[in-house]
Specification:
single chain; Rossmann fold; 2 domains; 39% helix; globular
């Protein structure tokens, strides 16, 4: 996908806004020996970021990374957020976490597919957090001496690395360590409790449709394994398009749908082509809650793991109360009880 970046740089900005905000990045930054470095992290591109002090003005243009910042209690560091936070059910949740979002007063200079360099530079950030694939925007920001932490998520360990790095960056490592330990403990407990010789075979369906799934090298694979189930997709790709014939050949016992505003489990159950699937015959087709609740690229991935395990093994889960589980998780991760989408 071609990324579009708004690069409008008036001459006065080019001449006047050349600052480091007490930070040094990788390329084109002052020599680290010239300053006293107290914080050092390596981003997902392998670039080393060095800071004299914890960044106080942060532009975060990734929603999943933003969620981690709120979990760490560092919302006051934020001076800008990704634009998709102001839309739909995502806004419903974030407006409960930050009165500035509720009032739509926090700037949103970009997203995964668009960044206004002019707006970001004008905010005078100490740090910008964005996808590492946005190379053109990263290069432009670094030319202004702005450190950029590039993110690329491929597995759960990457989620833990991001939180650990944020703990170092924002001087809240103890909180980061507790979040990571809590999540790892929950994941391992769920996996241990559902360690069966014959795990339930599951087909995972992305929002693009019944033909879209994930193979072995994916966060979906990890998710299903921690839930004590087995991914029927034996292909290697993280995201793969398959034929209905292949799905019928795999014949899963259960289908898990990523949240989809256009499709419901009933649509799958009523599809005449899929009537021979064991999952359809037994009516074991389930849809995950809204993305904010079960984002795989945040520590909230532990919730869909628990939920899938409860769907797969109801005899072990007993009276599983999904809303109560969700509220308990929010209380620990965000430090507050939140209203849920109805």
């Amino acid at each position: 996908m071609r990324l579009l970046f708004k690069i409008v740089l008036p001459g006065c900005i080019l001449l006047l806004i050349l600052f480091t905000a007490g930070c040094t990045g990788s390329a084109g930054q002052p020599n680290a020996e010239e300053k006293t470095v107290t914080i050092r992290v390596t981003d997902f591109m392998g670039n080393v970021l060095r800071f004299e002090k914890s960044p106080e003005r942060v532009v975060c243009l990734i929603e999943s990374a933003l969620s981690g910042i709120y979990m760490l209690g560092m919302k006051e560091r934020l001076v800008a957020i990704p634009g998709d936070v102001y839309r739909g059910k995502t806004f419903f949740y974030y407006s409960q976490l930050d009165e500035r979002i509720a009032g739509k007063s926090l700037p949103s200079p970009g997203n995964w597919d668009f960044i206004s360099i002019e707006q970001v530079v004008g905010l005078k950030p100490d740090l910008v957090i964005m996808w590492s694939s946005q190379t053109e925007a990263i290069t432009n920001l670094q030319q202004f001496g702005i450190p950029v932490y590039g993110v690329m998520m491929q597995d759960f360990d990457d989620v833990f690395k991001e939180i650990d790095d944020f703990g170092k960056l924002f001087d809240c490592k103890q909180r980061a360590d507790s979040l990571i330990a809590f999540t790892r403990s929950n994941l391992e407990r769920t996996k241990t409790e559902n360690n069966f010789k014959n795990p339930v075979p599951v087909y995972f369906m992305w929002a693009q449709g019944i033909n879209e799934t994930s193979g072995k090298n994916s966060t979906v694979e990890e998710l299903l394994n921690y839930a004590g189930t087995r991914n029927v997709c034996d292909l290697d790709q993280e995201h793969v398009t398959i034929s209905l014939e292949k799905l019928i050949e795999w014949n899963p016992e259960m289908i898990v749908m990523w949240y989809n505003e256009k499709l419901d489990p009933a649509d799958i159950l009523e599809n005449p082509v899929l009537q021979g699937l064991n999952a359809v015959k037994s009516k074991r087709v389930y849809e995950l809650p809204v993305v904010f609740t079960c984002d795989f690229w945040t520590l909230k991935m532990q919730y869909p793991v628990t939920l899938i395990a409860a769907w797969a093994y109801p005899e072990k889960s007993g009276q599983f109360e999904s809303d109560r589980e969700m509220q308990e998780l929010y209380r620990f991760l965000y430090g507050k009880e939140m209203r849920l989408v109805e």
